[in-house]
Amino acid sequence: MNCNAKQTVVIFSGLPYSGKTLIIQKLLERFPGQPIYVDGLFRNMVPEEDVCLDRWLEEGRRLVDGMIENISHTDASFIYVEVGIMQMKHRKRLMDWIRDGNYHLLPILLRCDSRHSVQKRQTAREEQIKIRPDNLKIAIGLDELYGPISEAFDEIMEWEKYHIIDTDKPI
């Protein structure tokens, strides 16, 4: 049984290559906890040949269900949830569930507005995946990122109370 009143759930939103996975890894070194990655959940529910943006957006409700299940079954003090570009209605459902469950909630939006930095991260990701496939990481091209993926991202609204971090600058 988890003791959620003492647990902190940190939600990371942001476009691909904004640094979500890296920051979660760094936090885990300093504040051990349970990571939950939306891409991992997605890849576990969808056959590889169906992995695409449209299918990802269709699965928003099921992805939130998976996050809720994972959160509710951990007793870790810190739970790091990478939600990527999840649509606002699904972010709201997840955040409402976390708040109603008496968890501490810390929503963070990672932004990297430097196309050069994003391109460097994208190239590094492609190289990593060539060496070692990883279902937590999906390599996408910059045309897709700056086209349909950016368009699909529902902007963070003020009422969501996200902390915004520019990952092009040292944190």
Brief summary of the model shown:
The chain is built from seven helices and five strands; from the N terminus they run βαβαααβαβααβ.
Notes on the protein architecture:
The protein is of the alpha/beta class and 171 residues long. It contains 7 helices and 5 strands. The chain has helices at 20-30, 38-45, 53-58, 60-72, 88-100, 115-131, 142-152; strands at residues 8-13, 34-37, 78-84, 104-111, 163-166. Strands 2-3-1-4-5 form a 5-stranded parallel sheet, with helices on both faces. Helix 4 (60-72) runs parallel beside helix 5 (88-100). The longest helix has 17 residues, at 115-131. It is globular, with a radius of gyration of 15 Å. The N and C termini lie far apart (35 Å).
Distance between the termini: 35 Å
DSSP, total strands? 5
Which structural class is indicated by helix and strand composition? alpha/beta
| SSE pattern, N- to C-terminal | EHEHHHEHEHHE
Portion of residues in helices?
40-55%
Strand content: 15-25%
Question: What integer is the average pLDDT?
Answer: 88
The helix count comes to 7
Strand order of the largest sheet: 2-3-1-4-5
Shape: globular
Largest sheet, if any? 5 strands, parallel
Low-confidence parts: none
Rg result: 15 Å
